[in-house]
Amino acid sequence: MRLNQRPLAGNNIVYAGWNRTTTPATSVAGLHHAAGDVMKISLAPNSITYYSADNSFWHVDFSVGTTQRGSSGSALFDQNHLVIGQLSGDRSLDTRPYCVKHDGDYGRFDLSWTGGGTPQTRLSDWLTNDPSVTQVPTVVNPNIDGPDQVCSQTAYFQANTSLVWSASPANLFTTTAGYGSQFTTAGAAGQAGVGVITGKLPGACEANVTKTVRVGTEPSGYFYGGGVSSGQNLQTVQFVTGGQISMFLNESANFTFSSSPAIQLSSYSGRSTSFYLPAGQGVQINVSAPGSPCALATGFVFAPRSVYYYRAAPNPVSDELLVTAADPDQPAGTPARLTNPAADSAAFETTLYDNYGRPVKTQRSERGQAMLDVRDLPNGLYHLRTGHGKDIVTEHIRVAH
């Protein structure tokens, strides 16, 4: 049987291992649906023997159970619980009642491996692409359990079987590889972003299972309102038109909410809150969960849509960071378009701060643009403050050379 798609993780499906040895097993078990009935198990604690003129079958004398019509094609498992044959029938044509006779003859798995010499008649084309593999262990369909957020504390990821582990991108994690049923890692100092934990099932037919995690102490979520009709992921800065705004956090923690400047919030704790923002007014909603494993905390700015806003790219950056006054309605990923042709009359200043709050780069704009050269800065997470007067926005910038 060949599946059209991989079964979903966590459903406890087990893939039977196999062995194409030519050595008779010391004990065996047969699993079959005799006469189409519920599954039966037949046991033979003694070694099996070759059978037929060309020794192309394993002959089994069961001490417990037997086989009968409907059992044909069922698997024979050796003492290591690996498939070594498939039931062909009773080659001796024994006519005694099934409750009296207790034997069966199984086609040898090692001979079926090469079969008739074509992909349609042999197993080798379907079970491995490595001709040196002679056996594969029984494995469970892999599944990963673990946290959705990884920070400086050790995070534990547990699998239901042994896996080859990896964590990417490598700069986000302290440990990026491992083997076994458990994998431990932590967020690298000063790093934040989205990473992937991958577990690879070793064997002839490799299977991967992945888990996407957030790295760092920033929570995630979404909001709507303020000119946004459907849920939009929360960013460091949201540009809104004002009105009723609702925000929701994804992480399972009891958050505390506050605002700056202070405005009325519908809730000051939990995972969601809402508020009314007058047109033209901005606010920063501060969220924190000091009791959570990662001590989650950040601030989400809801800034008024105005003549322009500030776009910083690329992020992450390795050499030069371009900050531009741009149209807030312009789609992301397109070249920045100045809204105000006389951008010099609305000059801004942009400053990059390190994790200790120290300014490391500052630049005033020229015709609506400012360039920061970060080639001499170490890798890590920085804070960018851009604007003029009271119109200041902040954004996290990651430097990665």
End-to-end Cα distance, whole Å, is 49 Å
Assign the CATH architecture of the largest domain. Answer: Beta Barrel
CATH class of the largest domain: Mainly Beta
- The number of strands is 33
Which strand order spans the largest sheet, edge to edge or round the barrel? 4-3-7-8-9-6-5
Major sheet size, sense and barrel closure: 7 strands, antiparallel
Give me the number of helical elements. 2
Q: Mean of residue pLDDT?
A: 85
Domain count: the total is 4
What is the structural class? mainly beta
What Rg, in angstroms, do the CA atoms define? 32 Å
Principal-axes geometry comes out as elongated
- At the fourth level of CATH, the homologous superfamily of the largest domain is Trypsin-like serine proteases
Structure, described:
This protein has 401 residues and is mainly β. It folds into four domains: 17-136, Thrombin, subunit H, CATH 2.40.10.10; 142-215, Immunoglobulin-like (Sandwich), CATH 2.60.40; 221-304, Immunoglobulin-like; 309-399, Immunoglobulin-like. The protein is built from two helices and 33 strands. The strands form eight sheets. Strands 4-3-7-8-9-6-5 form a seven-stranded antiparallel β-sheet. Strands 12, 13, 14, 15, 16 and 17 form a six-stranded mixed β-sheet that branches. The longest helix has 6 residues, at 109-114. The chain starts with 13 loop residues before the first strand and ends with a strand. Residues 331-345 have low confidence and may be disordered.
